Amino acid sequence: MDRVVEEERVRDALLGLAGNPALTDELFARLVADGDEDVLYALAGREQLTAPQVRALLGVGDPAVTRYLVRTGLVPWSAVPEDHPGRALDAVIGGTAPLDTWWKAAADPDPGVRKEVAYEADAPAAVLAALAHDADPGVVRGAAGNPCLPPALLPGLARHPSTVVREAVAGNENAPAALLAALLADGGQPAPTRCGACHRREAACPDHAPGVRRVRLAAAAHPAVPPAGLAAFLDAPEAWTFAARTDLPPGFLDRLAEHPDADVRAVVAANPAVREALLRTLAADPDPEVRRAVAENPAVPLDLLVTVAAHERLPDEPAPRVESATEAELRSLAGSRVAQVRVLVADRTRLPGDLVERLAADPDPGVARRIAARPDLAPEQLADLVERHGPPVFSAAARHPGCPATVLHRVAAHPTTGRRVLRDIARHPASRAETLLRCLAAEDPDVRRYAATHPALPVTVLESLLHGPDETLALAAAENPALPETLMKRIVE
């Protein structure tokens, strides 16, 4: 049993070594020669594989590894093995196939292959035009929704017997407004004879109403559909798909603001075309998500924004109205008695330096937490925030790219520091060896794993992890770019 455990540990170390960015070409070749399937996959997934490394992996002849390399565009068409299964399709997806190979893949007897070709974003227009007449509705659907399809074919596809094809047409970004209006009205004419529920069955459904509704909803969600035709969908659960449009006819937003679904009302609340009176009504909506959406509206009056901020917990991201505020408005908001309004200012992407200093001295922990996350904050200011506010700013400090090593160590040593903060510390470039050792002693396995991959970890510690009882840490230590070549060779041998 001990031998089995040892073999597993060595195998895990080899997997980690396969992903190590400092792996030498010699050791790469030795791992390829070893031929372990999982190790080969790990090698193929490395970033920035060299041409010789790709050739070495291709030489193994593993179909799955070859497929991955070809599909990721690492193998030129001339180098794709002739006997590789799925050669044409893999090269098409990898973007290395010549035009005749596209045609070969599009003519494959397997509809699944033809479908993959039909969905390819870089498919030649002529190939898609041919697939648009395929016998399989799933293939036609892929071509009908592909923006590379010649737009002249869309009107014909909008009359396809299957609703799945018409739905794809309604979602094509090049669909003309008149065609969308027709699909929005009744799903298109003539009436479909097949839908997603029956197109693979010999007998058709007695009623294709669900499929027709999907076609109409797809058209309703299209930004180019004439807005006047959306009247029939104002009460639909899916009205959120168009409630953000700023060109809706008068009265439509008023109706949508009374929609029974709070998700729809929230989209309306964030719509900059909403009149002010309606926005103030939505600020009193019974659902908190709707009220919060008012604060995200780019056109919200500042006084209403302050009102909402005083009573709601807002998202941890810049508010559009604060982003566009004038300097005078910004300074007024920074002096607000409502702490969350000052938080909104602290979240703004660009702030005058004096306002950053002013908010860094703010006594509110919420303001301090947002200021601590700013990339333009000086390291000494960050250290001061941690000193004055403690745990409320630990998370922001641990994620800050300029956080001093002394601060990271202090945060890691604090008894209240949670696993999420420790994970960030274990990955922080400035973390020192003593901090990482503390992370290795944490209960959370992710914290220990991140610490084991940190290049500041001493070599002696890495060696102990490679031979320790924890297989996960052995793998992580083998991935560490600071691992000496001597230890790498020992693992391989």
UniProtKB/TrEMBL annotation:
Keywords: Heme, Iron, Metal-binding. Residues 182-272 form the Cytochrome c domain. One of its GO terms (molecular function) is metal ion binding. InterPro entries: ARM-like, ARM-type_fold, Cyt_c-like_dom. The keyword Iron applies. The keyword Nucleus does not apply. This is Cytochrome c domain-containing protein.
